[in-house]
Structure formats: C-alpha cells, structure tokens
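Instructor's aside before we start: the two examples that follow are unrelated to each other. I chose them only because their records fit on one page, so don't look for a connection. First example below.
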Amino acid sequence: MKKTMRITILALILISNIGFSQNDLTELKFDTKYFDAVDKWVAFPKKDTDSTYAYGFIYLDNQAGFTFNYETKFQIKEQKLINIKRDSTVGFMKYRLEPNTSLVSVLTDNQISALNLPKEPEWLSIYKESSDQVDYLKQEGYHYNHVGACEQALKPLLKAYEIQPHFDGLEFELAYAYNHLGQFEKAIPILEKAIESNPKNYYFFRELGYSYLGLNKVEDADRTYRKGIKMSDNDFEKSEMSVNMAQAYFKLKNKKKFDEWAELTRKYSTKDKRYLQYIDQFEQNWNKK
C-alpha cells in the first residue's frame, strides 16, 4: 500500500514538472527594456495580424550604440517553438535601437535550447576585445547615459575612473550619471577634481552648478554657473544654466536675483527659444503659492 502511494505521488510530481516546463517554453514576457537585455537573446512582440515573433541578440556596439542582431522568427504551435527558416542568401541584419523601442521578452534557457541557439553568438567576442580598456568603458557608460539608463552606466564608468580618472569625457559622464540619479553629493568631488585638472571645461561647471542646486546650495550654484557662462562659447548651454538659476530664485521668491537670471536666459536664447517659455511661466505665476 505504501509503495503504491509513493509511485502515485512521484507520477504527480513528474506531471507537474512537465507542465511547468511547457509553460516556461512558450511563455513570453514583454517587460524588459532593451538596455536591460544587453548580451541576451530576446523576442520582440508580434503584431495582432502576425503569427510569428522576430528574435535575435541584443548587444552594445561601442561606437554605434545598442544594436539588435536579427536571427529569424519563430511560431508557437502545440506548446512548442517552431523556427522559421531564414533566407540563407541574407546576411546579418542589424538594427540600431532607439529610445522608443518596444519592450522585449528575454528568452529563457529552455527557449534558447529549443531554438538550438548557443549561449551567445560567436561573433560577439569581436565587440568585447577591448572591454577592459578605459576608452571602451567610458563609451559604454556614455551609451547608457544617453538613453537615461544612468544606473547601468555607473559600473563601467566607475571601473574606468579607478584606472584613469582624467580620461577625456569620463569625469563628465560619471558626474552626469550621479546627477541624473539624484546622488549630487557623489558628483561634487568628482567635478571638483575634474576642474582642478581642466579648469577651462565649462561642462564641468554646468554639472557642478546642477549638483549644488540639487542640494539646495543656491549661492554655490550661482557662483559656479557664472564661471561656466563666462568661459562657455555655447549660447544654448548658457541659456540652460541661466534658466536653472532663474527657477531656483523663483522658488525662493527672490525677485532681484530672478530678474538677473531671467535677463541672461533671454540674452542667450536668441536662436534657441525653448527656455523662454519657462521664464514667462515663472513671471506669470510669481504671486501664486
């Protein structure tokens, strides 16, 4: 009697495991942003009128950015993934991924195996040859920052910073990532050291002023932005620094200082007028709580 029960329970466990495996094989979850799926096999959602899913491998081309290498398509039939044979005359098809790229489904190990795919493509190694070098790491961080994935940018940027902190563009990217994440206190020492090394780079002053504003150190921001504006030859950057300070003084209801920075915003926005509307809104709402 006891032996029979053990066999029955074992059979139920096996049936349960088979069911789980089948669900895992055919379940697709389109919940991952492309920059969180780097070095992974992924599927893209299909249109309602389609019966197949395009799939391939996402990687980071250090020069061009996030890239999707199209493999082919598959169908789901009778709880199985069916590969659609690709035209053998067609070479690699690569697509540069843009911020509006749809969410993807990262393929599971079972799905990768069912599609007879390697863990990663052989050609991927070409794009990893210099992955430990400072210029590669800085550029990797740049690409993550560029799409707003600043948390992911920190790992390569910090690694590069330990090797060669004053590498061209590295300090800016690292400070930008910290500022974007609201970690202003971490950005400040990096920028201070950057300015010591290269005191004529107005981008450092722009980011440092932003850090000070993030910590409500308005006077420090005011002084820093003025230095940045003085050495900058870029009117758009000047207008951005100016409108940031105008906003700070709007919040403090310091009319005298606000007017100074509003005037500077207008002065440097003669060609690109995107910040003028903010000044108008601040003035229109000055007496509102």
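Example two begins here.
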Amino acid sequence: MRARSKKAVFAASSDNAGSITVCGVRTVSAMLEAGRLRYLLVTHTSNSRVQEILYKAEKKSIPIRQVADVELVRLSDNSQHQGVAGLAEPPVADWRQLLRRAEAPLVVLDGVTDPRNLGAVLRVGRAFAVAAVVMPSRRSAPLSAAAAKASCGAAAFVPLHRVTNLRRALTEIKQAGWFVVGACEDAKISLVDATPTSSSPICWVFGDEGSGLRRLTVENCDLLARIPTVVGEAGCLNVATACAACLATGANRWFPE
C-alpha cells in the first residue's frame, strides 16, 4: 500500500469542487467500478472485501492511505463506514443533453432535505434506469456520505443535476417535450387510472414527505396523480417508496415505444 500523508490527500481533495466523501464497501466499490474514485482511505485492511478494493485501487493507481477508525467515522457523517472511505466525483448531468434523453424517465425532487431520502431515490432511479435526478440547489439534501451510502452504489451511476430555479427548470423540461407528472396524495386522479395525453417521455415530480409539492411546482405539472393506498398510517409513503411505485407503474404503460 502506498503511503500518503494526510495533508497531501486532503489538500488535493480541496481542488475538486464536485467531489464528495463516500464510505462503505458497496458505495466505494461502485465508485471504483465507475472510475469515479479519486482517493481511498482504509482502516480495517484484514476484511476480504476491503482487500479486494485495495487490490483494484492499486491497479488503477489510486492514492491510498490507512487511517484510524475515528477519522473514518468523522469523514463518513457517523455512517457505518465498514473500514473504507474515499473521495469520489459523482456523475453530473449536462442540462441540454439531459433534456434530449427521451428514452428514459426523469425524476425531479421538490424540497427533499433528508440526505438518506436522496440516496434512496438514487437507488430507485438506478433500478429503473432514470435519465437523472433533478433538484433545487438550495433547501435540498446534499449528496453527502450518508446519501451516497443510502444509495447502495447508485450515486456512482445516476446523474444528479442542481437547478437554481425549479419552476423555470420544469418549464424547460416541458418545452423539450416531456410530460410532467406530479405525485400528490390529494390528487383526484389515481396513478393506476392516469393516462398521459401523449407518448412523450415522463418526468416524475416528488415533494417533501411533510409538505408535499409546493404551489408553483403543482402549477407547472401537466398532471397530478395520487398513489392508491389504504387510509391510515400506511397511506403516507416516503419519497423513495413513492418514486418506486410511480416508476414501476409507468414502466409498462408510459414509456415511449
């Protein structure tokens, strides 16, 4: 294992504005597989899964440093780091190219502030091959170590795009030919009964679990639909579960031919 000083590793990381800290075997492995891992920090090298990561990182000439467990805990937002963490550059969507990707659905998050919810949505997005996840640059969850870990590796493959004005972004999405569907528990139309007015690619919009979609966001949706659930405590789904339900429902009926 090559020796690297703490100062050298983190001085270099400060030059990468789009870099994030990732932790956990699955997340670090995914970033390594995707060619997005830039530095590697380990503490429990006796673990066979960590040893495999070390071997692959060495072959790719990725800088490696062994650190104390307490340092990995600090860097990983107190998440279970499993003895490994690193610095990675997650994929970022190019806005113009993104709007031309009509072969895959698009997910927009309005006011989702919990990093673990963001990570879970990225995981769902990876499962359904979404074009990207779009969210406001302010008052939204950061792609932190906790979010990346909750994504179970999906943060290495699903592009995340931040916009300064969500209303304007939705307008541009619609102008590019997407059909925008907002998930709203108060909507009159059920998801299973909803039918788009065209064969356009679908853009799904999800709000915060507490407050839901904001008024301006609702006004920029082509359709509002609710997920049919039983009345009671089970009726309110978290944002990642709602996302999965919508993408699964639309997978067979709403994808363009």
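The radius of gyration is 20 Å.
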